[in-house]
Structure formats: C-alpha cells, structure tokens
Design brief:
16% strand, 43% helix, Rossmann fold, alpha/beta, globular
Length: 263
C-alpha cells in the first residue's frame, strides 16, 4: 500500500483525528486546492494527491485498461485510504473527482463518512428527461478537438470552464494546468469522464454528502446539482454565489465556509 502513496506523491499535513482528502478535477492537480486545503490543517490531517497522469504522480503508472472507467481512479483513492488507515474521513472531490469519491465510498464505506462534492455531475450527456448539459454531438466535438489540437482546445475551453471573465488570470491558470497534462492521457480521461453514467451509484451512498453548486457553471449546471442532491439519500445542497466551475480557485473563501459548516 505504500506504493500507492509514492505513486500519487501523497502528502499529509495538519493535525486532528480525522483525515480530509482533497481530489482534483480533470486536467488539474493538487495545486488547485492551495487556497482551501491549508485552512483545515488545524482540525484535520489534510491529504493531497495527484491522479495518474497529472501533477507529480508517476506517469508510468498509467494503465489504459485500469483507467478505462472511473472505477480505476476510485481504486486509487481506496488504496490511499487503506495505506493511511483512514476511518470516517472526509472526501472533498472537485468535478469528476466527486463521482470518483462516490464510487470509492460505496466500495469501501468505512473510509469516508462525509463527502463534499464540488460541481458534481453523474452524467454529462442529456438523456430523455435528464439534463446533463451536453448533447452527444457536443461531447463528440469536444473529444475531436482534444485529439486534434489539445493545446488549442485547452486555451479555448479553460476560460469558459473557469468563468469569471473579469479575472482572466484564473482562466489562464486553468489553461496552463490543462497544458501540463499528457495529451494522450488527457483525451482518454476526458472520454471516461464525459461518457460516464454514475446516476445509479448515488442512491447507494451511505455517507452524508454536501453538494456545492456554482452559478453559471457550463460543465455542471444547476439542474445537475439539484439532481445529485435529490438522488443522494442524505445530502445538503448549497447554491453558491461563486460562478464558473472552479470555486476552489475563484471563490476559496466561500468554498472554505461551506465545507467548514458541513464538517
């Protein structure tokens, strides 16, 4: 299990009996939590890591078969939790990591008794009465752009995903983060992310959950956040003033306040 800690370059800081694990979204790394995570070090052992293919994680650990679904990423979270002997911890997952946390908590419920889901989406594709935010043509076009011109896609999409057009430096930071990820791994991770369907997994969650929903989020619109809240057996929904998809960067104070009130 120490292999998992090395593979994901896991760091543990802070104090307290409980662990709080922060997981980043697609195209990002642990650095996206730099304004939020330290604020919990006085009361929790704060755990940061990078998903395979991102940040300082061992790039040779990427296995297309294992990571052909979000379950592979959930396995990594469980292995990290087992290596650190986490019991009744808090998992804070941004974007796709929200569903990775749901999968991990369902498979190994002893590790996490609380989930904080930041901009979660169990399915990005629209489906009959379900509004996920994207048509199949939208997703196909996105994946095509990723494959043909990843750097161009990153520069174009990052500001739209971040929102906050009046603060262009935020979009620039997200674009730079996208550009640091291996393009091949990024494309496969995008396919797994945007074509996943984890709606049925929500009803099985035993942990208490907090759904943080931003305004004007083009990746996970409000209808999706409300769906997640309704589908989870024991959850709270906070409609944030923050706009865009990355409140951990654009509105860290509001994000910290909401998490602190929940835990």
């Amino acid at each position: 299990m120490t292999d998992a800690l090395q593979r994901h370059d896991v760091t543990v800081t802070g104090q307290g009996e409980r662990h709080m694990v922060f997981a980043h979204g697609f195209g990002c790394d642990r650095n996206m939590w730099r304004y939020v995570a330290p604020e919990f070090e006085a009361d929790f052992r704060v755990v940061l890591f990078d998903h395979v293919g991102a940040g300082t994680c061992d790039p040779t650990a990427y296995d297309p078969k294992k990571y052909g679904s979000l379950d592979g990423y959930a396995t990594d979270v469980i292995e990290i939790a087992e290596a650190l002997d986490i019991e009744n911890g808090v998992f804070v997952g941004h974007s796709v990591s929200a569903m990775i946390g749901v999968l991990a908590a369902n498979r190994a419920p002893r590790h996490f008794s609380q989930l904080v889901l930041v901009g979660p989406s169990p399915r990005y594709l629209n489906d009959e009465q379900y509004v996920g935010g994207f048509s199949r043509d939208d997703i196909d076009g996105l994946l095509e752009s990723l494959e043909s011109n990843y750097l161009g896609w990153s520069r174009q999409m990052a500001p739209a995903i971040m929102g906050n057009a009046d603060r262009p430096e935020l979009g620039e930071e997200l674009a730079n983060s996208f550009c640091r990820m291996d393009p091949g791994i990024a494309k496969r991770f995008a396919e797994v992310t945007f074509l996943s369907d984890n709606r049925a997994d929500l009803a099985r969650v035993q942990a208490r959950a907090l759904v943080l929903q931003c305004a004007d989020d083009i990746i996970a619109p409000e209808a999706v956040g409300r769906y997640v809240h309704a589908a989870l057996p024991n959850s709270e929904l906070v409609l944030m003033k923050a706009t865009g998809h990355c409140p951990n960067l654009s509105a860290p104070g509001e994000t910290i306040e909401a998490i602190r009130a929940f835990v």
